[in-house]
Amino acid sequence: MSDKHRMSINRFARRVDANQDAVVSALRAAGARVEVISRPVDLLVGIRGKLALFEIKDGDKVKSAQKKTSAQEKFFAEWAGYPIGLVDGPEAALRMLAVMK
Questions:
Q1: Which domain holds residue 63?
Q2: Fewest C-beta in 10 Å: which of 47, 58, 75, 78?
Q3: What is the DSSP secondary-structure string of 37-74?
Q4: Does residue 68 carry a pLDDT above 50?
Q5: Is pLDDT at 6 greater than 70 in this prediction?
Q6: Whole-angstrom Cα distance, residue 98 to residue 4?
Q7: How many domains does the chain have?
């Protein structure tokens, strides 16, 4: 494979928020089923027969670095009213999980 092709593949590599593992671990420890789906949002989360979508942002980054992408903005708008939330760490994810229960 040429360098040109290798770079084009890497260009689409998924950036994972630094706190994603901590969020997933906290949710699973609380009894949730978690599937990392990456697109259009980061997680599909289930508990007690209920499902929700979670987008993770790194709460340790400056606010401007925590913004949703334009594709995420569009997705959130199109799915308004459905269980989808933005979480910035394990504590926020657990609060959303509590609302789901």
A1: 17-100
A2: 78
A3: --SSSSEEEEETTEEEEEEE--TTS-GGGGPPPHHHHH
A4: yes
A5: no
A6: 47
A7: 1
Q: Give the Å distances, CA to CA, from 33 to 25, 39, 54, 55, 63.
A: 10, 18, 12, 16, 29
pLDDT per residue as tens digits for the range 28-57: 999 999 999 988 999 999 999 999 999 999
Separation between Cα atoms, residue 40 and residue 75, nearest integer Å: 7
**CATH code (residue 40):** 3.40.1350.10
Q: Is residue 3 part of a domain?
A: no
Question: What amino acid is encoded at 87 in this protein?
Answer: V
Question: Is residue 57 within 8 Å of residue 70, measured between CB atoms?
Answer: no
Task: Fill in the amino acid letter for 29.
Answer: A
